[in-house]
Amino acid sequence: MKKGLFISIEGPDGSGKSTQIENIKQFFKDKDIDIVFTREPGGTPIGERIREIILDKNCKEMDSMTEAMLYAAARAQHVNQVIRPALEQKKIVVCDRFVDSSIAYQGYGRRLGESVAIINGFAIGDCMPDVTFLMKLDPTVGRKRIDEKQQDRLEMEKDAFHVSVFKGYLDIEKKNPQRIVGIDASRSINEIKLDIYKKLEEVLKSVAE
Ligand code: TMP
Protein backbone atom coordinates (compact mmCIF):
# COMPACT_ATOMS: atom_id res chain seq x y z
CA MET A 1 0.00 0.00 0.00
CA LYS A 2 1.26 3.44 -0.92
CA LYS A 3 -0.63 5.13 1.90
CA GLY A 4 -2.82 4.35 4.86
CA LEU A 5 -6.51 3.65 4.49
CA PHE A 6 -9.18 4.97 6.83
CA ILE A 7 -12.57 3.21 6.83
CA SER A 8 -15.47 4.14 9.10
CA ILE A 9 -18.81 2.45 9.68
CA GLU A 10 -21.89 4.45 10.56
CA GLY A 11 -25.57 3.97 11.10
CA PRO A 12 -28.48 4.43 13.47
CA ASP A 13 -28.71 2.37 16.65
CA GLY A 14 -29.90 -1.16 15.88
CA SER A 15 -28.96 -0.99 12.18
CA GLY A 16 -26.81 -4.14 12.31
CA LYS A 17 -23.54 -2.22 12.35
CA SER A 18 -21.87 -4.51 14.93
CA THR A 19 -22.60 -7.65 12.90
CA GLN A 20 -21.11 -6.14 9.76
CA ILE A 21 -18.08 -4.91 11.68
CA GLU A 22 -17.38 -8.54 12.56
CA ASN A 23 -17.68 -9.38 8.85
CA ILE A 24 -15.29 -6.59 7.92
CA LYS A 25 -12.74 -7.87 10.45
CA GLN A 26 -13.15 -11.34 8.93
CA PHE A 27 -12.64 -9.96 5.40
CA PHE A 28 -9.19 -8.66 6.33
CA LYS A 29 -8.34 -11.74 8.42
CA ASP A 30 -9.07 -14.00 5.44
CA LYS A 31 -6.60 -11.96 3.42
CA ASP A 32 -3.98 -11.96 6.20
CA ILE A 33 -4.09 -8.17 6.29
CA ASP A 34 -3.54 -6.55 9.68
CA ILE A 35 -5.86 -3.71 10.54
CA VAL A 36 -6.16 -1.29 13.42
CA PHE A 37 -9.72 -1.70 14.65
CA THR A 38 -11.04 1.01 16.89
CA ARG A 39 -14.29 2.67 17.98
CA GLU A 40 -15.96 5.91 19.01
CA PRO A 41 -16.66 7.23 21.48
CA GLY A 42 -13.54 5.62 22.92
CA GLY A 43 -10.55 4.05 21.24
CA THR A 44 -8.06 5.37 23.82
CA PRO A 45 -7.94 5.04 27.63
CA ILE A 46 -8.96 8.72 27.96
CA GLY A 47 -11.65 8.37 25.29
CA GLU A 48 -13.11 5.30 27.01
CA ARG A 49 -13.41 7.31 30.24
CA ILE A 50 -15.18 10.09 28.37
CA ARG A 51 -17.45 7.41 26.81
CA GLU A 52 -18.55 6.28 30.27
CA ILE A 53 -19.66 9.81 31.14
CA ILE A 54 -21.43 10.48 27.82
CA LEU A 55 -23.41 7.24 27.78
CA ASP A 56 -24.17 7.10 31.52
CA LYS A 57 -27.96 6.99 32.02
CA ASN A 58 -27.52 8.99 35.23
CA CYS A 59 -26.12 12.01 33.35
CA LYS A 60 -29.67 13.13 32.54
CA GLU A 61 -28.91 16.83 32.92
CA MET A 62 -26.10 16.83 30.34
CA ASP A 63 -26.37 19.87 28.11
CA SER A 64 -26.36 19.15 24.35
CA MET A 65 -23.31 21.33 23.74
CA THR A 66 -21.45 19.58 26.57
CA GLU A 67 -22.34 16.28 24.92
CA ALA A 68 -21.09 17.45 21.50
CA MET A 69 -17.85 18.74 23.01
CA LEU A 70 -17.22 15.53 24.94
CA TYR A 71 -17.60 13.47 21.76
CA ALA A 72 -15.23 15.87 20.01
CA ALA A 73 -12.75 15.77 22.91
CA ALA A 74 -12.66 11.97 22.86
CA ARG A 75 -12.22 12.17 19.07
CA ALA A 76 -9.28 14.62 19.29
CA GLN A 77 -7.50 12.20 21.60
CA HIS A 78 -8.37 9.28 19.33
CA VAL A 79 -7.14 10.98 16.15
CA ASN A 80 -3.89 12.14 17.69
CA GLN A 81 -3.07 9.03 19.72
CA VAL A 82 -4.32 6.24 17.43
CA ILE A 83 -5.71 7.09 14.00
CA ARG A 84 -3.23 9.59 12.58
CA PRO A 85 -0.12 7.68 13.75
CA ALA A 86 -1.51 4.45 12.24
CA LEU A 87 -2.27 6.14 8.91
CA GLU A 88 1.21 7.67 8.87
CA GLN A 89 2.56 4.13 9.16
CA LYS A 90 0.42 3.21 6.11
CA LYS A 91 -1.87 1.00 8.14
CA ILE A 92 -5.55 0.25 7.54
CA VAL A 93 -7.75 1.79 10.23
CA VAL A 94 -11.32 0.54 10.64
CA CYS A 95 -13.37 2.71 12.98
CA ASP A 96 -16.80 1.97 14.45
CA ARG A 97 -18.36 5.47 14.13
CA PHE A 98 -16.49 8.75 13.54
CA VAL A 99 -17.35 12.39 12.94
CA ASP A 100 -20.50 11.63 10.87
CA SER A 101 -22.05 10.29 14.08
CA SER A 102 -21.62 13.69 15.70
CA ILE A 103 -23.05 15.50 12.68
CA ALA A 104 -26.08 13.15 12.66
CA TYR A 105 -26.69 12.75 16.42
CA GLN A 106 -25.65 16.13 17.80
CA GLY A 107 -26.07 18.27 14.65
CA TYR A 108 -29.47 16.86 13.58
CA GLY A 109 -30.69 14.86 16.61
CA ARG A 110 -29.83 17.57 19.17
CA ARG A 111 -30.35 20.32 16.57
CA LEU A 112 -26.96 21.94 17.19
CA GLY A 113 -26.49 22.37 13.43
CA GLU A 114 -23.29 23.76 11.96
CA SER A 115 -21.56 24.24 15.32
CA VAL A 116 -20.90 20.49 15.41
CA ALA A 117 -18.80 20.60 12.25
CA ILE A 118 -16.89 23.59 13.63
CA ILE A 119 -16.09 21.92 16.96
CA ASN A 120 -15.03 18.78 15.16
CA GLY A 121 -12.87 20.75 12.73
CA PHE A 122 -10.74 21.61 15.76
CA ALA A 123 -10.76 17.99 16.91
CA ILE A 124 -9.81 16.21 13.68
CA GLY A 125 -8.16 18.75 11.37
CA ASP A 126 -7.94 17.10 7.97
CA CYS A 127 -8.20 13.52 9.26
CA MET A 128 -11.28 12.16 7.44
CA PRO A 129 -12.19 8.62 6.42
CA ASP A 130 -11.45 7.57 2.82
CA VAL A 131 -14.54 5.37 2.80
CA THR A 132 -17.57 5.30 5.08
CA PHE A 133 -20.11 2.48 5.09
CA LEU A 134 -23.51 3.82 6.10
CA MET A 135 -25.98 1.22 7.32
CA LYS A 136 -29.35 2.60 6.24
CA LEU A 137 -32.28 1.28 8.23
CA ASP A 138 -35.50 2.98 9.31
CA PRO A 139 -34.72 3.87 12.94
CA THR A 140 -38.13 2.74 14.16
CA VAL A 141 -37.25 -0.76 12.87
CA GLY A 142 -33.70 -0.66 14.23
CA ARG A 143 -34.72 0.46 17.70
CA LYS A 144 -37.06 -2.48 18.17
CA ARG A 145 -33.96 -4.71 18.06
CA ILE A 146 -32.45 -3.10 21.16
CA ASP A 147 -33.31 -4.49 24.57
CA GLU A 148 -34.78 -1.57 26.56
CA LYS A 149 -32.88 -2.52 29.71
CA GLN A 150 -29.57 -2.39 27.83
CA GLN A 151 -30.15 1.05 26.30
CA ASP A 152 -27.55 3.76 26.92
CA ARG A 153 -28.36 7.47 27.39
CA LEU A 154 -28.48 8.18 23.64
CA GLU A 155 -30.42 5.05 22.75
CA MET A 156 -33.04 6.01 25.38
CA GLU A 157 -33.96 9.15 23.42
CA LYS A 158 -37.45 9.39 21.91
CA ASP A 159 -38.28 8.08 18.41
CA ALA A 160 -38.38 11.66 17.03
CA PHE A 161 -34.72 12.12 18.00
CA HIS A 162 -33.73 8.96 16.13
CA VAL A 163 -35.79 9.96 13.10
CA SER A 164 -33.84 13.26 12.96
CA VAL A 165 -30.55 11.38 13.33
CA PHE A 166 -31.47 9.18 10.36
CA LYS A 167 -32.43 12.20 8.29
CA GLY A 168 -29.03 13.63 9.18
CA TYR A 169 -27.30 10.52 7.90
CA LEU A 170 -29.21 10.68 4.62
CA ASP A 171 -28.20 14.34 4.19
CA ILE A 172 -24.55 13.49 4.91
CA GLU A 173 -24.76 10.73 2.28
CA LYS A 174 -26.17 13.16 -0.28
CA LYS A 175 -23.44 15.71 0.42
CA ASN A 176 -20.56 13.19 0.28
CA PRO A 177 -21.35 10.77 -2.56
CA GLN A 178 -17.70 9.98 -3.24
CA ARG A 179 -16.93 8.93 0.35
CA ILE A 180 -20.16 7.43 1.67
CA VAL A 181 -21.23 3.95 0.58
CA GLY A 182 -24.92 3.65 1.45
CA ILE A 183 -25.92 0.11 2.42
CA ASP A 184 -29.55 -1.00 2.41
CA ALA A 185 -29.52 -2.58 5.87
CA SER A 186 -33.07 -3.96 5.63
CA ARG A 187 -31.74 -7.00 3.70
CA SER A 188 -30.28 -10.25 5.03
CA ILE A 189 -26.96 -10.24 6.89
CA ASN A 190 -25.37 -12.18 4.04
CA GLU A 191 -26.59 -9.88 1.28
CA ILE A 192 -25.26 -6.88 3.18
CA LYS A 193 -21.95 -8.63 3.80
CA LEU A 194 -21.51 -9.39 0.08
CA ASP A 195 -22.15 -5.73 -0.78
CA ILE A 196 -19.56 -4.57 1.73
CA TYR A 197 -17.00 -7.17 0.61
CA LYS A 198 -17.40 -6.09 -3.02
CA LYS A 199 -16.71 -2.48 -2.11
CA LEU A 200 -13.76 -3.44 0.11
CA GLU A 201 -12.19 -5.36 -2.80
CA GLU A 202 -12.50 -2.24 -4.97
CA VAL A 203 -11.02 -0.02 -2.29
CA LEU A 204 -8.06 -2.34 -1.69
CA LYS A 205 -7.40 -2.44 -5.43
CA SER A 206 -7.45 1.35 -5.65
CA VAL A 207 -4.93 1.85 -2.80
CA ALA A 208 -2.60 -0.82 -4.22
CA GLU A 209 -2.41 0.90 -7.63
P1 TMP B 1 -22.41 2.71 19.86
O1 TMP B 1 -23.68 2.18 20.50
O2 TMP B 1 -22.34 2.51 18.39
O3 TMP B 1 -21.16 2.25 20.58
O4 TMP B 1 -22.45 4.30 20.03
C1 TMP B 1 -22.76 4.89 21.23
C2 TMP B 1 -23.82 5.94 21.10
O5 TMP B 1 -23.20 7.22 20.95
C3 TMP B 1 -24.76 5.77 19.92
O6 TMP B 1 -26.10 5.97 20.39
C4 TMP B 1 -24.39 6.88 18.97
C5 TMP B 1 -23.83 7.93 19.89
N1 TMP B 1 -22.83 8.84 19.30
C6 TMP B 1 -23.14 10.19 19.18
O7 TMP B 1 -24.24 10.62 19.55
N2 TMP B 1 -22.20 11.03 18.67
C7 TMP B 1 -20.95 10.60 18.28
O8 TMP B 1 -20.12 11.40 17.83
C8 TMP B 1 -20.65 9.18 18.41
C9 TMP B 1 -19.31 8.69 18.01
C10 TMP B 1 -21.63 8.36 18.92
Would you spell out the secondary-structure blueprint of this structure?
Blueprint: E1 5-10, H1 17-30, E2 35-39, H2 45-55, H3 64-88, E3 92-96, H4 99-109, H5 115-124, E4 131-136, H6 139-144, H7 159-175, E5 180-184, H8 189-208
Parallel strand pairs: 1-3, 1-4, 2-3, 4-5
Helix pairs in contact: 1-8, 2-3, 3-5, 4-5, 4-7
The chain binds thymidine-5'-phosphate.
What report would you give on this structure?
It is globular and about 50 Å long. The protein has a single domain (5-208), classed as Rossmann fold (3-Layer(aba) Sandwich). The protein has a five-stranded parallel sheet, sandwiched between helices. The protein has helices at residues 17-30, 45-55, 64-88, 99-109, 115-124, 139-144, 159-175, 189-208; strands at 5-10, 35-39, 92-96, 131-136, 180-184. The model has no long low-confidence stretch (mean pLDDT 95). The protein is an alpha/beta fold and 209 residues long. Helix 4 (99-109) runs antiparallel to helix 5. The structure holds thymidine-5'-phosphate. Thymidine-5'-phosphate binds next to helix 4.
Name its key features:
209 residues; alpha/beta; Rossmann fold; 5-stranded parallel sheet; 8 helices; 5 strands; 13% strand; globular; binds thymidine-5'-phosphate
Radius of gyration: 16 Å
Distance from N terminus to C terminus (CA atoms, Å) equals 8 Å
- Characterize the main sheet: 5 strands, parallel
Number of domains: 1
Q: How would you spell out the order of helices and strands?
A: EHEHHEHHEHHEH
Bound molecules: thymidine-5'-phosphate
What's the CATH superfamily, by name?
P-loop containing nucleotide triphosphate hydrolases
CATH architecture: 3-Layer(aba) Sandwich
